[in-house]
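Case study 2.
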Amino acid sequence: MENKPVVTFHTLGCKLNRAETELLANQFAEAGFCVAGEGNADVCILNTCTVTHIADRKSRHLLRLLRKKNPKAFIVATGCYAERAPHDLSDVGVDLVVSNEQKMSIPELVMRGLEAHPICPDSDREMDNPFRVRSFVKIQDGCDDFCAYCIVPLVRGQEFCLSAEDIVATVKDKVAAGYNEVVLTGTKIGAYHHGGVDLSQLIERILQETGVPRLHLSSLQPQEISGDLLGLWRDSRLCRHFHVALQSGSDAVLKRMKRRYSLADYARAIALIREIVPEVAITTDIMVGFPGESDAEFEESYRFCQGTGFADIHVFSYSSRPATRASEMKGQVHEKVKKERSLRMLALAKDSARNFQERFQGRTMSVLWETGVHSGSGLSSGLTDNYIRVYAQSNQRLSNTISPAKLVKPYDEGLWGELIS
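Prediction:
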């Protein structure tokens, strides 16, 4: 039998990138490639991110590492960094740089490239396909908001949405393929509207027309949350986890950021979620060191996060992005100050996550198990429907199954679970 070339995928950044990587993996599998999660490969594809300068640096580092580990491979860089600054990737061992607009043409572009860059697969390697537990389904792309710090509208373009019919059909395909969770994702999914169907109506159709075991939303903004939307959570298949970006707990900073809500708006949205969805996990993004952020404004932000009781906080320092309003603002915060504020906020994030998890110790909850933590160790990890990380020991393969576990004690970044027969 003819040996199959092996392709590996690596993704940085948002869930939308992960959804697009998954689509590419399916296209390569249909084209006769062996899709693998790790190991030596004939083709390596990195879906990059450029939301901060650290994301840029990670992209370049990973591309160099891929070249070092796979010296004969055909290496492709795509995604938002490749869109914004393709010239930056010319010296990191990349064979092909592909823009976001051409991303879904990568299989064809790679096969053309391989004509001039032939590969010789050394064995018929049937390796584990890493895309098998949780599927990310793109429903929307682009953003028209142009927040002062954000480069995403410049690299993703204007808002557009996929049709409800296409999305429902995709979810049906994912269920038929054995996925136990589907995550609806996009740049700004709360803006979904296509053919008279809004996000609430889209979710309702998916729940009515598919047998998806779990349905999860990637991220929302406070102004996109309503009682009508939250009422859908009466269906237990909807994951009780909301990621609601805050960015700052200071009204003055939010105004400079050009965000479209106040702290009062945000607090009302969080209160409404908790009123309607019991035992919900609410996570958020917080930026420290936005231009002009004073010590008092940072303290205000810290106290707001402390009082809100998030299940987790994604903390990141402001990073100047070219062609954004914030890059030209006065009062750029010194890196040392940003680091100090980031460390304080990260400590709060750790405490917040532990406090949320402790509420569920002693409880028995359903867990969607992912891949084993260490091959051959019998140790597996997975997530509850409100996204608590659970670890358990089992002699049986748990991957891509949903089963109950009693959450007994803290372990690593989550809780240790005892499997229930």
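The chain has three domains: 6-116, 134-358, 364-419.
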